[in-house]
Each structure stands twice: as structure tokens, then as C-alpha cells.
Design a protein that fits this description.
The protein has about 425 residues and is α/β, with parallel strands linked by helices. It has two domains: about 180 residues, Periplasmic binding protein-like II (D-Maltodextrin-Binding Protein, domain 2); about 190 residues, D-Maltodextrin-Binding Protein, domain 2 (3-Layer(aba) Sandwich), CATH 3.40.190. It has 17 helices and ten strands. Strand 4 and strand 5 form a beta hairpin. Helix 2 packs antiparallel against helix 13, helix 8 crosses helix 9 and helix 8 crosses helix 16. The protein is globular and about 70 Å long.
């Protein structure tokens, strides 16, 4: 009995020591967690983007165990709606992905986001030219840094065009000729969603008129006659079977071969064509469509694909800046992101991708079309406003369904725009 009691006592002491030891470890872990600084990060994207971003965040946390990053992400429409609420309520995340148009919307005076130049001790701005950084400035304040540049681009499934013995289209009339031979087989030579086709029609109208849609003051320079030109062109595209109506556009038809091409952003190329290329098709980012005698790129626009900003309300600017630098300039982040968001502007990230052979593929080719063009213009963010392109498509449909003449539709569209926008010359109608 004495031996048994001694054994039990020893076991109890052992368990007690084990519990105390674990308790001490837990106390130490909890202490470390209290000392850890937590910051927040938000972005939008598909499952692929979410997966590599979470992995990249994990790499950052491993490199900086003193910082914990809480992530918030969703698809575009949900993120956009949530961002509106966060910006108005001042509850935005410490580091956030933003659209270029939000700078004018939320920080016209430069005070809507943190001044990143005040964080230059932790963010290496030498990787970006002044011209690039200007995209992120408002009222002289560096509110955001572009990740990559972006432009609507014409992508053509060369495999389908070759089947019909057609050259890759770089002129408007080539598309109408292609429709004559493709559409009897149920194939559209081109396609695009509403905003893409809106910008496509603007490119055509700017080439025909010699005027830009917006001037440097964001005044509309188009006349009623110019709007009529756009409406007529859209309806010709639809009626002559070059494109489906934008309401009927379905990205999956690129995979089925019902669309032999599309107009889409550089940053979206992989999302549109990964499966198409995997099925054995050759997809080419062709030069920007123009009229005879017009230089490629005239009427087309480039903008930052997306930007990163820091909240003006952050309680941890140093840690937020460290994360921002890691996202923009580190080899670790660049390796995982590749060219999914476009070709990185950061020289550090781009040079690394070149070294490891990751600068290739359709997205890279589309970026080269954009970057090597001398005539593509800087995009006014307002040109992407939904009221502009939705109003345009509504006007086109009035004509398409014989409910209005193009002259009447253009007049109504002009009057609609005049309710919100200023025209450069109020007498030009």
C-alpha cells in the first residue's frame, strides 16, 4: 500500500508539473499574441486570386511574426458595395485594394487615404517612376500605388480565324468581312461585355471625329452627332453579326468556340483564355483596332489595373507600410502572383519574374501590346461610370428595336448626360 501510495503521489506530482509547464507555455503564447500587432487587408478576386493572396500573406507573417494580418475578400460587386460603406463610415481596412476611380470619389482633395510618401521608410518607392506614381496622387498627395497597368485589348482566337482563312483583324472593316463567313456557322468574330463595347465604340468615334470623349477637365467633348455616330456603329456591329448584343454576352462562349474573339482588360486575359488555350487554341492579343490611315492606339485608353492604398485611419501605419511593400516589391509575393493582376510595375517584382521565367503567356503578350504603343491615352476614371455606358446601351437598344431613330436616341442621350456632366461646348449640339 505504501509503495502504491508513493507511486500515485509521484504520478500526481508529475501531472501537476506537466499542467504547470503547459500553463506556463500557454501564458507565454498568450503573451506573444498580445504583443503581436494585428492589421487588416482587403481585396477582390476569384478563387485563384484568393488562394495565392492568402499564401502570400502567410509568407509575410512568417517573415514578420510580430505582425498578424486579418484578411477580408470577396468577388468584385460585393467588394465594391462593401467599400462604399467602409469609406463612408471610416471602417476601411489598414491596407486595401482600390479601383482608380475611387481616388476621385473618396479623395478628391488627397485626404481620403494615407499619404504613402510619409511611409517611405518602409515602402521602397524607388521601384516606381514619377509618371506611374502620378496615377495614385490626388491634390499632390500619394494616396495609392498602382500594381500594374491595364487597357481594353482585342483578343482573337487565331485557330478559328485560320480555319476560315482570315487574317487577324486590326481594322474595323475586317471584322465585318469576317462576320459574313463566320456567322452562317453561328460564330461571332468578336464579343464583349457592356463596358468593353462602350469603350470600343468610343475608340471608333474618336478616330472618326478627331475628338476625345473627355477633355482634361472631364467635360464631355462629343456632340449629339458624335453620340449618333457611336449608336449607329454599335447597331451595325450587332445587326451585321460582328458581336452579340451586350446583354447576351457569355464568357463561356469563348470556350465553346461561338466567339472567335473578345474585347477585355489585360488583367482579365488569364481568366478568359486559360481553358481556351488548354484546349489547343492559339489566342493572340492583336494591335488596337483602327480605321485606315489611323495610328494604332488612337482612341484607346490605359489606366492602372488596380492600386493599393493605406487607410487614413490606421492605428498601425508602420506595419501597414511593411505589408504594402511586401505586396508590391517582394520576390515572395511576385512569385505567387505572377502576372495574374497584370505585369507588375515594380521593377523589383518585374525583374524577379523575368529572372525566373514567369513573364510569358497571353496576359504578358497583351501587356506588351499596351506598353509598346505610343498613342494610347491616359484614361479619365469617369469614362467607366455605369451611368455613361448603361445610358449608351439603352439608347442603342431604342434604335435596335425600332423604338426610336438614331437622331432621336442621340438627342435623348445627350440630354441624359447633361443632367450629370458638363459639355465642353454647350452650343455644339
Amino acid at each position: 500500500m505504501k509503495k502504491r501510495m508513493a507511486s500515485l503521489t509521484a504520478l500526481a506530482l508529475s501531472v501537476s508539473m506537466f499542467v504547470c509547464s503547459c500553463g506556463a507555455d500557454n501564458t507565454e503564447v498568450l503573451h506573444e499574441q498580445v504583443e503581436q500587432t494585428e492589421i487588416t487587408l482587403s481585396w477582390w478576386g476569384n478563387d485563384t486570386r484568393n488562394e495565392y493572396t492568402l499564401e502570400a500573406v502567410a509568407r509575410f507573417e512568417k517573415a514578420h511574426p510580430e505582425i498578424k494580418v486579418k484578411c477580408s475578400y470577396s468577388e468584385w460587386s460585393g467588394y465594391e458595395a462593401r467599400n462604399q460603406i467602409r469609406m463612408v463610415s471610416g471602417t476601411q481596412t489598414d491596407v486595401m485594394q482600390i479601383n482608380v476611380g475611387w481616388l476621385s470619389q473618396f479623395s478628391a482633395d488627397g485626404g481620403g487615404y494615407y499619404d504613402i510618401e510619409q511611409l517611405s521608410e518602409w515602402v521602397d518607392l524607388s521601384n516606381f517612376s514619377e509618371e506611374v506614381l502620378e496615377y495614385g496622387r490626388r491634390n499632390g498627395v500619394l494616396n495609392a500605388i498602382p500594381i500594374a497597368m491595364n487597357a481594353e485589348t482585342v483578343y482573337i482566337n487565331k485557330t478559328i480565324y485560320d480555319r476560315y482563312g482570315l487574317d487577324l483583324p486590326t481594322k474595323w472593316e475586317q471584322l465585318f468581312e469576317a462576320a459574313k463567313v463566320m456567322h452562317p456557322d453561328g460564330i461571332y468574330p468578336l464579343s464583349g461585355a457592356n463596358k468593353s463595347i462602350w469603350l470600343y465604340c468610343i475608340a471608333y468615334a474618336e478616330q472618326q471625329t478627331g475628338r476625345q470623349f473627355f477633355n482634361e477637365n472631364s467635360d464631355i467633348c462629343f456632340t449629339e452627332a458624335d453620340l449618333k455616330l457611336m449608336i449607329d456603329f454599335y447597331n451595325r456591329l450587332v445587326k451585321e453579326n460582328v458581336i452579340p448584343k451586350v446583354e447576351d454576352y457569355q464568357k463561356m462562349n469563348l470556350e465553346s468556340g461561338s466567339y472567335a474573339g473578345t474585347v477585355a482588360w489585360v488583367s482579365d486575359a488569364m481568366g478568359y483564355f486559360t481553358n481556351v488555350i488548354a484546349d489547343g487554341n492559339e489566342v493572340i492579343a492583336v494591335p488596337y483596332t483602327v480605321s485606315d490611315g489611323i495610328e494604332s492606339g488612337v482612341g484607346w485608353y490605359a489606366k492602372p489595373a488596380t492600386l493599393y492604398a493605406v487607410s487614413k485611419n490606421t492605428d498601425h501605419p508602420k506595419e501597414a507600410a511593411m505589408l504594402l511593400d511586401f505586396m508590391l516589391n517582394s520576390h515572395e509575393w511576385a512569385e505567387l502572383q505572377g502576372v495574374e493582376k497584370g505585369i507588375p510595375i515594380s521593377t523589383s517584382a518585374r525583374d524577379y519574374l523575368g529572372t525566373v521565367g514567369l513573364l510569358d503567356g497571353i496576359q504578358y503578350e497583351a501587356s506588351l501590346v499596351m506598353e509598346t504603343n505610343d498613342h494610347i491615352a491616359h484614361m479619365d476614371p469617369l469614362i467607366e461610370n455605369a451611368d455613361l455606358y448603361n445610358g449608351f446601351i439603352d439608347a442603342c437598344n431604342l434604335v435596335l428595336f425600332d423604338k426610336s431613330s438614331s437622331e432621336e436616341a442621340a438627342k435623348e442621350l445627350y440630354e441624359l448626360y447633361a443632367q450629370t456632366y458638363t459639355f465642353a461646348d454647350e452650343d455644339n449640339s
